[in-house]
Write a structure and sequence with these properties.
alpha+beta
């Protein structure tokens, strides 16, 4: 991935660590399922993550092109 996308992803990870799974400030943020979320890192790249309700467990399961996104 381009450096700027990697940098955006690192910012997202920091936001997830500090604020939890709901990230409405990120572009095109949205819930995919009850406990799965996604947002755009740039126009062409996205990140998807899920969390377990009642825990602090959060898993980023996809970072890559939006054309190949698993949603």
């Amino acid at each position: 991935m381009p450096i700027r996308v990697q940098e955006a992803f690192l910012k997202l990870v920091k936001n997830l660590e500090e604020n939890g799974p709901v990230q409405p400030a990120w572009p095109n943020y949205g819930k995919l399922e009850d406990q799965a979320h996604h947002c755009h890192l740039t126009y062409h790249y996205i990140a998807c993550w899920r969390h377990e309700r009642g825990t602090i467990t959060l898993e980023v399961y996809y970072v890559g092109s939006r054309e190949k996104a698993p949603y």
